[in-house]
Amino acid sequence: MDPTPDRPSPQLFSLTGKNVLITGATRGIGAACAIALAQAGAAICLVRRPPESAKQPNMDTVNTIHGLGGSVKVVECDLGDMEAVRGLFDRALDAMGGSIHVLVNCAGIQRRSPSVDFPEKDWDDVLDVNLKSVWLLSQAAGRHMVPLRRGKIINFCSLLTFQGGITVPAYASAKGALGQLTKALSNEWSQFNVQVNGICPGYVATDMNERLLEDPVRYKQISERIPAGRWGTPRDYAGPVVFLASDASQYVCGELLVVDGGWMGR
User: Fold this and answer.
1) What positions does the domain Ketoreductase occupy (predicted)?
2) Which residues, in sequence order, are CB contacts of 113 under 8 Å at separation 6+?
3) Which end of the chain is more exposed for a tag (fewer CB within 10 A), N or C?
């Protein structure tokens, strides 16, 4: 592994000249991360669902990055379609001129139901999007990055990487496995100067948690347990993702960075 470059510390966080492929960036945490990475100088390749699988393609992130004067490309892919996922990295490579320096796996879906009634299709859907698509993209990224001896892979895990949750057995299983996948890839690829790490968000006020936000009992229970005194916002993940994508994290390998307002500490 290359040592941390001997540059002034602010320059270690610059992503100028880096190409980033990011999933889940049309809304929520992923959108905030894509914008932050662009602000740090990166060129962005954003994965968006095809129009036929979404009511209205969300262009807010693209428009914001363009407004910053940044570079952003869009590739379409349904991350629940494994055949499409298998070709996604190569299509992104073409869009980015043959080079990707950073992969950010931020896309995810949620299904809630008591475990005794949890539908098998919901299980398969969640495991495909939240785990298998991440594995396939990461494997493709490794095949690109390892021979070049450089690269960063950042997986968005969860508090449920460590905890079981309630009525979310598929999500907890996928995120638990994703934490182990992050460590497994790091064990193999760190020697080739490819750092693989995870970010584990706490409770964040996004549409994925809409049912919790609308449940006054659960909302109160969760809020009272967060030492910071508030739920997270997507912008709370801008700094962590830039850090892990940059040279400032050169010696950070296989880490699951918890960003949760102190939940796990309690």
Assistant:
1) 18-192
2) 119, 122, 167
3) C
